[in-house]
Amino acid sequence: MRRAYFLASFALPVLTFFACGEGDGIAVFPGPPGHDASLPREDASSSDAGVQDGNIVDAGYDAAGDGGWKPPVACGAALPGPPLAPNLTEAEPGYGEQLAQTETAGVPDPFDYGGQSEMMRAVVHYMFEEPADRPATATRAQAAEHENMGRAFLASAARGRDGRLDVPFLRRGLHYHYPCSRPLPATLDELRARYGDYRTWSDETIACSKPKNGPRRIFANGEKGIFVAETLVDAGVRETEVIFTRLRNDGQLDFAAYTAEGQLTDRSTFATNSGGTITAAAPYICMTCHLNSTNGGFTTLRPTGTGAGCKDAGP
Predict the structure, then answer these.
(1) Does residue 214 sit in the same domain as residue 228?
(2) Which of the residues 141, 173, 224, 289 could staple to 12 if both were Cys, CB 3.0 to 4.6 A apart?
(3) Are residues 29 and 45 in the same domain?
(4) CA angle at residue 76 from 71 to 80, to 5 degrees?
């Protein structure tokens, strides 16, 4: 008997007409009058080992189970997929050149980012792959340990004003460096080679997924800590999104999105409140709704308030 899993909403709606929270750079676009930011989630009735109330728990957690895998692409590599919405922060071109031109010698050591929003503090911790409860300060030595992400942090600090981070530049740095810093499978074929064929795992089909405004098929393997969601369009798969729960030293989630052809991408498409779609940057769009406000980390597998689609599908 196949079990129903709760991951129907794990790759979450873009912030057009929807925001999971307010703060530094979180609400990318304003919602229209009357927008309800507490839309019901699409969770099913059961959870799996290592998960409690939609969050990762310690039981069975295998820290940094990366198998010695390396990041799949070089930093700044052009990944396939539909174009990002042009008014998104991450859509601004030229990050690599701007990073190279940014002088960081004047950044205080240590740099205190405690005045940033909860979300931005969590993003920095995530970039440094360190626990969410760590102090909101970082030294140059700590930044150097994290190479690409460390350079992105220092450049954001250098470009900020009044002792604060340049949040758009930090987000662009996360987007630029994430695929070259995390040991994600480069293709769905590689995902299956590492973990087995997810299409044989326990699965559930959602008739109308609110984040996608259409059907979605979810595969889950709690033992491996992998959760896969396929967006179904015209009997085919438009994109596949994957959550990894055991790749990191800090116990947080890693996110990956794949094109219809099974290639790693750095974006994904979601429903908007107007009935259309928008393509947003991953992993940031995923992170905005997977933040656990209790522990300050990206550990929530089952967020609430997700999805702008399926308005006629009922609760």
Answers:
(1) yes
(2) 289
(3) yes
(4) 85
